[in-house]
Amino acid sequence: MTKVKIVYASITGNDEDIAYVLTEKFEDLGMDVDMSEVSQTDASDFEDTDICVVASYTYDQGVVPEEALDFYDDMQDLDLNGKVYGTCGSGDHFYEDFCRAVDEFSTIFEQVGATKGAEPVRVELDPEQDDIDHLDKFAEELVAKAKEMDD
Ligand SMILES: Cc1cc2nc3c(=O)[nH]c(=O)nc-3n(C[C@H](O)[C@H](O)[C@H](O)COP(=O)(O)O)c2cc1C
To answer: Flavodoxin-like domain: from which residue to which, for each copy (predicted)?
Structure first.
């Protein structure tokens, strides 16, 4: 069974909601899904999965959340060749660097050899129906990419 690991960073719950939406969708698609909060997760968990997903909010001037920094640093030592990745997250257009943490995580995934399975999804605050539709499509694309790489 294809394994999916979803790691989220969330203070006020928006990214946790995003992670739940994705978990449900991946389960509907028949995936074996595991979801965890970033400060409670070892980056090396990504080495034991097929599809790697990060859902993170962005904080002060576009930085990765403080509780995600260790995870972010540890990701740089991974070898994720052969894995599919997707990044997403919630932000607020009030700030100049909208959802920049999403791009920061994409950059790390690229550096450690993972293959992008879908374009990043950026959500304005809490996920509404059109965001949920977008996240569902994101999950479908990640699964399709993992299947393609398995063939
Ligand atoms: C002090 C502060 C700084 C923030 N900086 C940014 C930012 O630079 N870019 C952005 O897109 N959102 C920024 N945000 C908005 C959060 O990313 C947004 O509220 C997000 O939905 C929080 O996600 P969560 O509910 O998962 O914690 C900031 C929020 C606060 C309180």
So the answer is: 4-143
Atom of ligand 1 nearest to the CA of 58: 17
Query: Which atom number of ligand 1 is nearest to the Cα of residue 91?
Result: 11
Kindly report the pTM of this predicted structure: 0.98
Q: How far is the CA of 57 from the centre of ligand 1 (A)?
A: 6
Mean pLDDT to the nearest integer, 35-55 = 98
What is the secondary structure of 109-121 as a DSSP string?
A: HHHTT-EE-S--E
Number of domains in the chain: 1
| Residue 78, domain extent | 3-146
Asked whether residue 63 is domain-assigned, the answer is: yes
The answer to whether residue 136 scores a pLDDT higher than 80 is: yes
Report pLDDT digits (tens) over 7-25.
999 999 999 999 999 999 9
Q: What is the CATH number of the domain that holds 121?
A: 3.40.50.360
Q: How many distinct helices (H) and strands (E) make up the chain?
A: 4, 6
Cβ of 76 closer than 6 Å to ligand 1, yes or no, is no
CA–centroid distance, residue 17 to ligand 1 (Å): 15
